[in-house]
User: Which sequence fits this backbone?
């Protein structure tokens, strides 16, 4: 995922940023013509609505994500839900969880909050770190560039799932898990953004308008802010759009491995983790969260791809 | 922290054709109300015959079980399953279907021990003609040496009783540091051994079934390396061993069935594979393809997600043995810590508990029975039913609130629950979360505090009297089928271990109860003693020192080619030493 995203973003950065549509309004105009991106946007919007409105939706359903329902389970069959399709019905829209009887729709809606918050938070922090380091490397001296360049290589080469597991396991249980997840994912996953930012900065700093600004007496910080950063926007936004779904999968992965958020807080990865063993006895319990996770990631990928195309001058010219 | 390591034996004297299903079901049904047994023999082409069962290779699929084979360090109940294939102790469990399977019978000794002086002195005589795998004779001095080894700090890990019971046991350092030996174990001749205890212990014959009483020849003792290749006194010996992965056992030609009424030793070879996932073990046993046709497991029960497969498949369901190891999962209160020093608060938590949710969380009614008593529902432990704080199936929140108000908490209460952060042992996050949800309805706000990712890390916190949390989720199992080892470490005030390693989590110390425990320990008539233990449990139950949650059940699969499979009441599953593959 990150490798293809890297390539895609690198392609986006090959042409001068100024040739791409500038400003959010132009971006929106291009995006609107892209059906796939629009479909992705609809899915993402639905997901955001689901997460933000979780208390409302579950109130309409008349359920909450924590209440146990002993009476909805077949205790003799290991606590599998009574009724067909995992207990799906008017009272429980997506059925109930085996062994607990908790409402699956409510668990997924509240789980979406965790999923979104963690993946958005981690992506923002990754971009912040990555752009900071990339700018510093691109604008700093040869020594700073060599040092930061190696650090970026290290961050990219790091087996970060393994390191993430180690980090999440040693931090005391009292530390809030979602925050910890964001920090761990950001600290381990900023390398790609940094590399793109550095490359783009190196190419932008040789431009005439940057040289003009320097001759005009602008400080390095001012040049970074006024001249370089706007040029970084296109490739970085493109990369971030594709990073987000990857982070979503990673959060699910950590929770799946039991080192994500702690029970009774709901999370998609956690649901999938318990669901895997139920594929035979209660397939609905596996299929429903899988569809939700797949749709969300797919939606983000479509949207991200749309943004990439929209900011890619060649594509823009082609469709022009 | 009773580890269950399984061992088993066959019994030569019992019916040659074992339709274990019916026998086990009838006898169990008669004895155990809450613990039904429905086991059945596979309808193999030829019936089992003890006289004609020799041959073939038995495959054993395990999750664990292959990490420790030093007889001093093993912590088994009744000698375990796999260890009993090569370690014979003074006594062992009776390998018969039905309630008699909970009794102790002679193994190396001629009887289960002659008590004297109020059960403080126990004398054993060895059977004639006993030999090790190298053909040398087993003597009483070897058993004395084996018991003495267990006192060495490097070989710690076995049960604590020897140190507590034997005269001088509290200071003895083991034969390496103190070669003079322990004077409270006498060997007047090569066939006789006498144990002097500092107090009456009617249950000594049960302790003598543990591997600590299996002979170790001093000349072959390699200290901490002994576990890699122990000298066999049983029907099998090591042929190849990779710790935690694989153990291959072949026949010990010096073992004689004429001295051993408990192990049938039918297979010529036993191939034990460890480190497997529970799901994989169950799938392989269910499929029964290739060598797995002759496969069993001693440490894996069917999980909740596999139960559905059994309902639709009669042939598969007939290859399941249902039983229960005497074990209780419970909430422990530290009565030295507020607010649990207040009995009313403990009662409120007893009333509000949702046992149905807890049972479902660990796999439903097929895998667990709701518990209202601390002593498991087995007559061998003197089970005496009671339910002083009736919570119904799902908790009585109204009653709990009323009691809480009476205790001075009309607006509810906040408590922290410590538990082991893994669901592997049935006392982890799934149970804690279920408790939290039910308690919330009674105004008891539970903060979850996962403590350690395995039982050792959890015990390091909970077993430390100074830092023991107020409320914790624990499991307690029987070292042998008796109320004595079940109740004493938990409720005897003299068993409170300051620092680490404490099991009396209530930190309860009542002189009258301590005296009562001493009284019952003097009884050598087992049935009478168990009755008294049951009564003691019922008396202690009134104090709400624990909230019993459930008794686990085992549903153990076996391969379609395995014969003579029946429930061992002691182990709660079938016995490896009696099964046959021919």
Assistant:
């Amino acid at each position: 995922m990150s490798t293809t995203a890297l390539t895609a973003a690198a392609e986006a950065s090959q042409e001068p940023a100024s040739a791409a549509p500038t400003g959010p309004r132009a971006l929106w105009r291009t995006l609107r013509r892209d059906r796939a991106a629009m479909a992705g946007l609809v899915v993402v919007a639905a997901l955001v609505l689901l997460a933000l409105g979780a208390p409302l939706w579950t109130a309409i359903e008349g359920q909450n994500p924590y209440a146990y329902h002993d009476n909805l389970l077949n205790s003799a069959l290991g606590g599998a839900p009574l009724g067909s399709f995992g207990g799906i019905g008017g009272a429980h829209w997506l059925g109930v969880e085996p062994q607990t009887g908790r409402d699956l729709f409510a668990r997924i809606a509240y789980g979406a909050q965790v999923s979104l918050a963690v993946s958005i938070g981690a992506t923002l922090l990754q971009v912040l770190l990555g752009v900071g380091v990339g700018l510093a490397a691109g604008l700093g001296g040869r020594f700073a560039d060599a040092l930061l360049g190696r650090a970026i290589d290290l961050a990219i080469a790091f087996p970060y799932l393994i390191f993430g597991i180690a980090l999440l396991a040693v931090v005391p249980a009292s530390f809030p898990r979602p925050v910890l997840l964001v920090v761990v994912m950001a600290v381990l996953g900023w390398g790609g953004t940094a590399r793109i930012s550095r490359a783009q900065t190196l190419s932008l700093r040789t431009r005439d308008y940057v040289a003009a600004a320097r001759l005009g007496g602008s400080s390095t910080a001012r040049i970074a802010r006024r001249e370089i950063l706007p040029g970084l926007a296109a490739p970085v936004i493109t990369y971030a759009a594709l990073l987000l779904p990857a982070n979503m999968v990673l959060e699910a992965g950590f929770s799946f491995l039991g080192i994500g958020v702690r029970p009774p807080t709901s999370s998609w990865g956690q649901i999938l983790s318990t669901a895997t063993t139920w594929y035979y006895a209660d397939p609905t319990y596996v299929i429903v969260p899988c569809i939700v996770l797949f749709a969300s990631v797919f939606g983000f990928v479509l949207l991200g791809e749309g943004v990439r195309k929209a900011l890619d001058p060649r594509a823009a010219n082609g469709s022009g | 922290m009773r580890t269950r390591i399984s061992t088993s034996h066959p019994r030569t004297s019992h019916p040659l054709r074992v339709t274990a299903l019916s026998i086990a079901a009838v006898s169990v049904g008669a004895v155990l109300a809450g613990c039904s047994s429905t086991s059945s023999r596979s309808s193999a082409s030829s019936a089992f015959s003890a006289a004609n069962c020799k041959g073939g290779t038995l495959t054993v699929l395990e999750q664990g079980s292959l990490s420790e084979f030093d007889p001093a360090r093993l912590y088994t109940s009744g000698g375990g399953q796999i260890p009993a294939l090569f370690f014979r102790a003074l006594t062992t469990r009776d390998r018969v279907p039905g309630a008699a399977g909970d009794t102790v019978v002679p193994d190396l000794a001629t009887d289960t021990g002659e008590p004297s002086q109020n059960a403080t002195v126990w004398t054993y005589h060895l059977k004639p003609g006993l030999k090790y795998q190298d053909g040398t004779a087993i003597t009483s001095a070897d058993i004395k040496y084996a018991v003495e080894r267990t006192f060495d700090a490097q070989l710690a890990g076995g049960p604590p009783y020897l140190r507590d019971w034997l005269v001088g046991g509290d200071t003895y350092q083991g034969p390496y540091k103190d070669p003079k030996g322990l004077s409270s174990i006498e060997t007047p001749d090569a066939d006789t051994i006498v144990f002097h205890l500092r107090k009456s212990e009617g249950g000594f014959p049960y302790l003598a079934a543990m591997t600590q009483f299996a002979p170790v020849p001093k000349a072959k003792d390699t200290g901490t390396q002994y576990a890699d290749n122990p000298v066999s006194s049983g029907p099998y010996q090591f042929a190849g061993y990779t710790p935690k992965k694989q153990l291959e056992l072949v026949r010990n030609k010096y073992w004689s069935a004429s001295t051993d009424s408990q192990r049938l030793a039918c297979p010529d070879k036993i191939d034990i594979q460890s480190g497997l996932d529970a799901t994989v073990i169950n799938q392989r046993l269910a499929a029964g393809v290739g060598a797995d046709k002759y496969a069993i497991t001693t440490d894996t029960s069917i999980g909740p997600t596999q139960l559905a497969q059994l309902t639709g498949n009669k042939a598969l369901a007939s290859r399941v043995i249902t039983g229960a190891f005497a074990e209780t999962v419970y909430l422990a209160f530290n009565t030295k810590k507020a607010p649990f020093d207040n009995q009313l608060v403990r009662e409120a938590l007893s009333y509000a508990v949702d046992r149905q949710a807890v049972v479902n969380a660990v796999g439903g009614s097929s895998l667990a029975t709701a518990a209202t008593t601390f002593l498991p529902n087995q007559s061998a432990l003197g089970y005496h039913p009671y339910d002083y704080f009736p919570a119904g199936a799902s908790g009585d929140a109204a009653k709990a609130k009323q009691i809480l108000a009476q205790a001075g908490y009309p607006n509810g209460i906040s408590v922290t629950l410590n538990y082991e952060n893994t669901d592997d042992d049935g006392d982890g996050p799934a149970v804690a979360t279920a408790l939290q949800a039910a308690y919330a309805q009674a105004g008891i706000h539970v903060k979850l505090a996962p403590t350690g990712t395995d039982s050792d890390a959890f015990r390091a916190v909970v077993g430390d009297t100074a830092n023991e949390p107020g409320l914790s989720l624990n499991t307690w199992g029987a070292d042998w089928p008796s109320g004595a080892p079940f109740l004493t470490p938990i409720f005897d005030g003299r068993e409170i271990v300051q620092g680490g390693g404490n099991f009396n989590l209530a930190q309860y110390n009542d002189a009258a109860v301590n005296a009562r425990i001493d009284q019952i320990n003097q009884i050598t008539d087992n049935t009478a003693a168990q009755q008294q233990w049951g009564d003691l449990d019922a008396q202690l139950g009134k104090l709400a020192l624990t909230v019993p949650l459930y008794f686990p059940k085992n549903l153990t699969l076996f391969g379609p080619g395995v014969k003579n499979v029946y429930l061992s009441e002691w182990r709660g599953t079938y016995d490896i030493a009696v099964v046959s593959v021919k």
Confidence is low (pLDDT under 50) at residues 1-45 of chain B. The domain at 327-552 of chain B is CATH 3.10.105.10 (Dipeptide-binding Protein; domain 3). The CA atoms of residues 66 and 480 of chain B lie 22 Å apart. Chain B touches chain A through 37 residues (CB under 8 Å).
